[in-house]
C-alpha cells in the first residue's frame, strides 16, 4: 500500500503554478530521488508531503492523513514523517543531545533518560558521539547535517524527507552525509530525497522522479536505466548538462 | 542634605521600597503581557493579529499618565476599587508591555524561519516550537533593547506620585513641601533612582556579554 499518494495535486502562488497535476504514489520502504532543474518544483513537492506547503487542488494522502482536508491534525502526521533541510536548521539554542531529545521528550513523552540513551545510539550511528554536548554552531556543516538526520530518526518515523541535504556542504563533507543516508536507506526507511547528487540517486535510489516547471515528466523504477538514457528529451538535456562535466 | 536624610529616612525608605516593588510588578507583568501580545501580533490567526496590533497601537500612543489615571479614577468608579499603588503599577505594566511587545516581536522575526519549520517538522505544535526553540533565541537577541525598556520602566514608576502611590517621587514631593528644601530633596531622590537604575543597567550589560560569549 502506498504511504504517500498524490491525486491530481496542484499548488499555486498567486498566478504562478508551482505544481501542476501531480499524480504520484510512494510505497513504504521506497527510496525516491526527485531531480530536475532549479525552480522545477522539487522542493515544493517535497514540502507538501509534511504540510510545510499547502496544496490548492487535488488530493494528497500521507500515512492515512488527508492533507487536502484543512482540518487534518498536521502534528500527528509530522510525528511519523521527518524532514532534513538544506541548511540543517538545528536548534541553535540547544546542545546536540538536546536537539535530538527535544521532540521525543515533548511529543512522544519519552522520559529524559530513555530519550538520551536513544540519542546516544543515534549519535554513534552517525559517528558523532563525542559531540553530544556541543552547540550546533561549533560543528561543521557536514556534522550538523548528520545530527539533523539523527534528530529525524529519533522520532522513529515511517518516512524521512530530504530537501537538498548536501547542497550547502563543502565537497569534502558530502561523502559523510551520503554514507549516513545510505545506512538509513538500508534500514528499510521510506526516503524521499530532492537532490543534485546523481551518484546517490543512481546507486541508492529505487526510483527517479524527474520534474520540470511544476510537472513530473518522467517516473522511472530503474535508476540505472534512467541514467543511461532517460525517455524524455527534457530529462536527456538535463542529464547531459549535469553529468557532462 | 544630611539632615533631610536623617530626619526623613523612614519615609525615603518606604518610598524606595514602593518604587522597587511597583517596578518589579510592572517588569514581570509587562514581560509576560508583552510576550503574549507579541505572539498575537505574529499569529497565523487574523483575529489575534488584529487584537495584538490594536493593543500595541492604543497603549503605546496614549500618555502613561492618562493610562494610570484611567485605572485610578475610571476603573474604581465602575468596576473595582483599587488604590493608587495598584492603579499606578497596572498602568505602568500595560504601558510598558506595549513597547516590550514590539521589541519581542522584532526578536522573533529576526530568528530564521528554518528554526520554526524544523521544530514543526519534528512533530512539535506551533506553541511548543515557539516556547522551546524560537522564543529562547528571540529573547537573547533582544536583551539590549529590553534593558532600555526596564530602565525606562523604573524611572516611569515615578508616575505613582500622581496617584498617591507612596513611591519615592511621592515621598519627595511630600518632604519638599514640608521642609521647603526643594533642591536638596530632589537631589537625594535623583541619587536614589540612580542607585536603582545603574545596577540594573550594569546587570543587563553583563547578561548581554555572558550570552553572546
From TrEMBL, chain B:
Its main location: membrane. It holds the Pfam family BPD_transp_1. It is found in: Cell membrane. One of its GO terms (biological process) is amino acid transport. The keyword Transport applies. Gene3D superfamilies: MetI-like. GO terms for molecular function: transmembrane transporter activity. It is a multi-pass membrane protein. Residues 16-204 form the ABC transmembrane type-1 domain. Keywords: Amino-acid transport, Cell membrane, Membrane, Transmembrane, Transmembrane helix, Transport. Belongs to the binding-protein-dependent transport system permease family. This is Glutamine transport system permease. It comes from Holzapfeliella floricola DSM 23037 = JCM 16512.
Amino acid at each position: 500500500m502506498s504511504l504517500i499518494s498524490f491525486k491530481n495535486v496542484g499548488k499555486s502562488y498567486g498566478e504562478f503554478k508551482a505544481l501542476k497535476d501531480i499524480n504520484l504514489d510512494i510505497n513504504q520502504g521506497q527510496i525516491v530521488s526527485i531531480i530536475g532543474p532549479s525552480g522545477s518544483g522539487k522542493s515544493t513537492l517535497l514540502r507538501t508531503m509534511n504540510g510545510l506547503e499547502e496544496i490548492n487542488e487535488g488530493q494528497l494522502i500521507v500515512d492515512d492523513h488527508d492533507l487536502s482536508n484543512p482540518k487534518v491534525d498536521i502534528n500527528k502526521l509530522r510525528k511519523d514523517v521527518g524532514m532534513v533541510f538544506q541548511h540543517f536548521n538545528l536548534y541553535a539554542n540547544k546542545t546536540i543531545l538536546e536537539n535530538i531529545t527535544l521532540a521525543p521528550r515533548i511529543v512522544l513523552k519519552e522520559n529524559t533518560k530513555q530519550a538520551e540513551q536513544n540519542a546516544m545510539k543515534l549519535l554513534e550511528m552517525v559517528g558523532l558521539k563525542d559531540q553530544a554536548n556541543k552547540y550546533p554552531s561549533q560543528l561543521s556543516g557536514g556534522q550538523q547535517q548528520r545530527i539533523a538526520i539523527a534528530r529525524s530518526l529519533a522520532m522513529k518515523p515511517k518516512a524521512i524527507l530530504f530537501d537538498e541535504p548536501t547542497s550547502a556542504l563543502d565537497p569534502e563533507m558530502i561523502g559523510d552525509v551520503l554514507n549516513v543516508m545510505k545506512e538509513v536507506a538500508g534500514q528499510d526507511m521510506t526516503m524521499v530525497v530532492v537532490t543534485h547528487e546523481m551518484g546517490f540517486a543512481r546507486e541508492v535510489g529505487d526510483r527517479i522522479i524527474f520534474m520540470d516547471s511544476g510537472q513530473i515528466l518522467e517516473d522511472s523504477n530503474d535508476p540505472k536505466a534512467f541514467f543511461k538514457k532517460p525517455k524524455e528529451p527534457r530529462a536527456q538535456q538535463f542529464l547531459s548538462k549535469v553529468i557532462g562535466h | 542634605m544630611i539632615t533631610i536624610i536623617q530626619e526623613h529616612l523612614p519615609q525615603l525608605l518606604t518610598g524606595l521600597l514602593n518604587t522597587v516593588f511597583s517596578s518589579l510588578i510592572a517588569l514581570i507583568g509587562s514581560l509576560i503581557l508583552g510576550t503574549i501580545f507579541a505572539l498575537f501580533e505574529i499569529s497565523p490567526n487574523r483575529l489575534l493579529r488584529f487584537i495584538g496590533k490594536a493593543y500595541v497601537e492604543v497603549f503605546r500612543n496614549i500618555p502613561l499618565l492618562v493610562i494610570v489615571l484611567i485605572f485610578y479614577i475610571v476603573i474604581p468608579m465602575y468596576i473595582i476599587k483599587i488604590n493608587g499603588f495598584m492603579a499606578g503599577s497596572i498602568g505602568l505594566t500595560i504601558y510598558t508591555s506595549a513597547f516590550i511587545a514590539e521589541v519581542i516581536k522584532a526578536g522573533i522575526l529576526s530568528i530564521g524561519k528554518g528554526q520554526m519549520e524544523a521544530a514543526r517538522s519534528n512533530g512539535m505544535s506551533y506553541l511548543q516550537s515557539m516556547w522551546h526553540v524560537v522564543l529562547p533565541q528571540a529573547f537573547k537577541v533582544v536583551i539590549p533593547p529590553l534593558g532600555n525598556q526596564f530602565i525606562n520602566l523604573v524611572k516611569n514608576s515615578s508616575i505613582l506620585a500622581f496617584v498617591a502611590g507612596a513611591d519615592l517621587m511621592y515621598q519627595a514631593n511630600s518632604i519638599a513641601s514640608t521642609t521647603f528644601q526643594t533642591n536638596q530633596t530632589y537631589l537625594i531622590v535623583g541619587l536614589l533612582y540612580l542607585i536603582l537604575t545603574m545596577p540594573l543597567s550594569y546587570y543587563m550589560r553583563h547578561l548581554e556579554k555572558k550570552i553572546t560569549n
